[in-house]
From TrEMBL:
Lineage of the organism: Bacteria, Pseudomonadati, Pseudomonadota, Alphaproteobacteria, Rhodospirillales
Molecular function GO terms recorded: ligase activity
Keyword ATP-binding part of the UniProt annotation: yes
ATP-grasp domain ranges (all copies): 118-312
Protein name, per record: Carboxylate--amine ligase
UniProt source species: Thalassospira xiamenensis
UniProt keyword annotations, A-Z: ATP-binding, Ligase, Nucleotide-binding
Amino acid sequence: MKKIIITGAGSAQANGVINCLRMANSGEQIIGFGSDPIDLVMCDADVRYLIPHSQHPDYKTKFLATLAALKPDMIHFQHDLELWTALKFRDEIEATGVRMLVPDFETIDTCVHKFKSWEKFKSHGLVVPENILINTPQDLKVALENLGDEEGTIWLRSTEIGGGGKGAFPTNDLNEAIEWIERYDGWGHFSAAELLTSQTVTWLSIWKDGDLVVSQSRRRKGWAHSSLSPSGVTGVTKIGETCSDPEVEEIGKNAVRAVSKTPHGIYGVDMTYDKNGVPNPTEINISRFFTTIQFFAEAGLNMPAILKDIVLYNRLPPKEAKMRNPLPDGLLWLRAMDRAPLLTTAAEIRALLNEAP
């Protein structure tokens, strides 16, 4: 029996991947690695291992020792910080015999640091909002004067590793911006950018040795728990919608090639539309699936299973299969706490609802 390790087990990102592998029903043993015991017991892995957090001094030793003992066939990382940490000793990981589909460390380092990604996008001619790295209050003043919209508003965000809209905050007030950055001890670790619209799209793709294997686009129609975040961005999609757009596909491919000479692995290109209706790449979620990956699997495109087949069996999808936005447009994935997600359509929603008298 083949063994697959999924890290960050119990988190929303990892649970979706595990659920997709369960749906494939191809007989592999799923092993969950995680540093949070409560998260671990909530995942659907066959076996669970409590591993120190990737920033703990014992992480590398415990991680490698567990790999050596288990002799897994495949490992898949679902958290940026752990991926970035572990791939620093990639040779030692691969020496245990485990396989993975990930790009080189330079690509990973570029993608997990958003300002580095932006520099790559801009240097390759992609349409992106202007950005300024904020080292001092004077940089903030310059950003507000030069990047602000009609109301003088700019978009602040952390450039450090982390998801969920880390540090994101729209503001047109210098003192408020200074307080926000100091709250995070963030001088030198924040950027300011031109404010884009609220319309977003993600182009998710898997590549092997420079060739695109599969891709699918998804609009985000809303954030869950948005009222809890000053920016409204939480990193938790409330409503996702399948879509296809040749422009999004082309920009996605160009963004990937901007950061990676030979794309290899998973690249999720997040884009936000500007006021001219052009999707601007804002970041690439590297070597991991987004939290709503089960959406695609339930709709008929199981990307974790495709990844597994490539890594374990060197098996690609059939050549005759449609692998560029294969899902129909307009499928909706609805999420809420304490209930299973719902795959539906706008028409089905209208049919379920009754108008109040």
